[in-house]
């Protein structure tokens, strides 16, 4: 589904990714872990198409298409979703309005009919239920006045509504308490744990992986993947730390 080969990327002239290669197939969950400054968020931004990040070498294909040739909205319409470490607030725009426009824009790009207001609200209520988010929250402005946990749950509702084929989740566990972590983890499983979907989870800690069991765990250091293993690798990192595990 996603194939990254020898990816080099920089921002403001500073190289961050230095030959990263990774392949993610449908039905898989891959976790990326690594110390601060390793390039984890840069990888997420490059895949999402954030301005300012320049790919200088290598390739990324998504379902056989050159991802780097697509604009951010084209990547979204093709089935890619980027979950932010710090979801942004959009004053003056309600969640319902924002999500209905986003979904129908993607449906139009795919040659599908737009959802009616009633059809959309039914879908939104279903996905909000998965994340235990009150529908009243969806009537409020996007993330305005939301707690950190509410922002992350709201973002997962967005993911459920947009129904991507591939999700890149950048530190989705950041700012979550124990209860919210469980709700978000179960929501990710309900939405994305399917044979035709895949997830790239970027995280500092093993705790989210207790709920979203990865098929593969990769350690990213100094802009490239230096070690790959199963779910037990995350537990080992938690117990021993990066330096000791990478030196082994």
TrEMBL record:
Keywords: ATP-binding, Nucleotide-binding. The keyword ATP-binding applies. This is Fe-S cluster assembly ATPase SufC. CDD domains: ABC_FeS_Assembly. Residues 2-247 form the ABC transporter domain. Pfam families: ABC_tran. It comes from the Bacteria. PANTHER family: ABC TRANSPORTER I FAMILY MEMBER 6, CHLOROPLASTIC (PTHR43204). InterPro entries: ABC_transporter-like_ATP-bd (IPR003439), FeS-cluster_ATPase_SufC (IPR010230), P-loop_NTPase (IPR027417). Coiled coil: none annotated. Belongs to the ABC transporter superfamily. Ycf16 family.
